[in-house]
Specification:
Number of strands: 14
CATH topology of the largest domain: Cathepsin B, Chain A
Strand content: 15-25%
Largest sheet: 10 strands, mixed
Helix content: 25-40%
Structural class: alpha+beta
Length: 393
């Protein structure tokens, strides 16, 4: 530490002593709490949320259209649930109707394409359940889409999705492929599909909609008519030049997509609010493994013992990305925004298990500080943010 720098604790004391605006912020205190999570008792670090003036209801947000919440079960496929929910809202906004799409149809072919790249890269490619929001766009372009009723993606009688055995079986097989140097793409893909069929069921090659038989690609092109090329992904990181497109460097971007628009944090945050105010929902990728996020309380904030709100800026965000206290671990769907009291609040539709523990099943309330510090990427229709897009032309 340089001699002319001051520790945060000293800055806090100075602020209090001079009666600055910063000291008006209530200070959060660390507490440990015993919680039952997924059937197991765990002691977690958290805070007293009774002192947080959170929204009282979902209705306060006048939510934009979205279909009812769906649990992703015991899977790491939040990216598919969030992006599919987002595209379902887009279908309604574009006057295509209220259509429930199959998340697992996309997931099936995402696994296939991950395995294909694994072979082509001779094992030097990430294979896991996670992916990114724009993977749904890419798989739809490649394989089309189907209604949820045509492909539930789980065995008959199975109450929830569970990919723990499925992933383990596929990963073990691919590790065997690598150890034996068995780089026969056709053979590997055939085995992966056989494994997927065992756990998820075989996806349909034809669907019937309004008494018409069509392929999934025909269903996408003729019935859904989604403008897939109009959806853009935006990030905010100092590791790449602002106002350029670059790679989003996280493991779940397994195909190393470089189509992310990189912008300063203030513009990133303003674009989120602007899009929602204009009637566009947004898919988000975020860090959700934080003490200020509580499923029991339906809320996500940044406690002052992490970083005081006045210190949340581009550099505080970047520091946490760099040291991996901020990681890309969950995808969600923003369906509303309101200014309530002294804070912006965002209504989040969430498929993860923690979202179903509180009073508002399948929802979270994200406060402005959490969004600025912990939301890493968003995907939206480019018409929602023309001012931002113009800076890249």
């Amino acid at each position: 530490m340089r001699q002319n720098s001051l520790p945060v604790a000293v800055v806090l004391m100075l602020c209090v002593s001079v009666g600055g605006a910063f000291c008006q912020v209530p200070q959060d205190t660390v507490i440990y709490k015993l919680l039952e999570i997924d059937g197991r008792e765990r002691t977690v670090l958290t805070l007293d949320f009774s002192k947080v003036g959170k929204p009282g209801s979902v209705e306060l947000f006048a939510p934009l259209f979205h279909l009812p919440q769906v649990s992703q079960g015991r899977t790491g496929t939040c990216w598919a649930f969030a992006a599919t929910s987002f595209l379902e809202s887009e279908l309604k906004r574009l006057s295509r109707g209220e259509i429930k799409l199959s998340e697992m149809y996309t997931v099936y072919y995402e696994y296939v394409e991950k395995a294909r790249r694994f072979v082509r890269e001779k094992g030097d490619s990430h294979f896991a359940q996670g992916s990114e929001l724009n993977a749904v766009i890419e798989r739809m372009k490649q394989y089309g889409a189907v209604p949820a009723s045509a492909y539930p993606g789980r065995k008959e009688g199975q109450e929830q999705h569970d990919h723990s055995k499925l992933e383990r079986e596929m990963r073990d097989y691919l590790q065997f492929v690598r150890s034996q140097q068995l780089w026969d793409e056709e053979q590997v893909i055939a085995y992966i599909k056989m494994t997927l069929n065992k756990y998820q069921g075989e996806p349909p090659t034809l669907v019937t909609v309004a008494k018409k038989r069509m392929t999934p690609k025909e269903y996408l092109a003729n019935e859904l008519r989604l403008p897939l090329d109009a959806y853009v992904s935006v990030m905010s990181t100092k590791s790449e030049p602002f106002y350029t497109k670059a790679e989003y460097k996280v493991p779940d971007n397994w195909w190393h997509c470089k189509d992310y628009y990189n912008v300063p944090l203030d513009e990133f945050y303003q674009a989120l609010k602007t899009a929602l105010a204009r009637g566009y929902t947004i898919a988000l990728a975020a860090d959700t493994s934080e003490p200020g996020k509580s499923g029991e309380e339906d809320v996500a904030i940044v406690p002052t013992f992490d970083v005081p709100p006045g210190f949340i800026n581009q550099d505080a965000r970047e520091f946490r990305i760099y040291n991996r206290t901020t990681t890309d671990d969950h995808a969600i769907h923003a369906v509303g925004y309101q200014r309530l009291g002294e804070h912006d609040w965002f209504l989040i539709k969430d498929s993860g298990s923690s979202a179903f523990r509180g009073q508002h099943k399948g929802y979270f309330f994200f406060r402005d500080d959490y969004v600025r510090l912990k939301v890493l990427v968003f995907m939206v229709h480019k018409d929602a943010i023309p001012e931002l897009m113009a800076k890249f032309q």
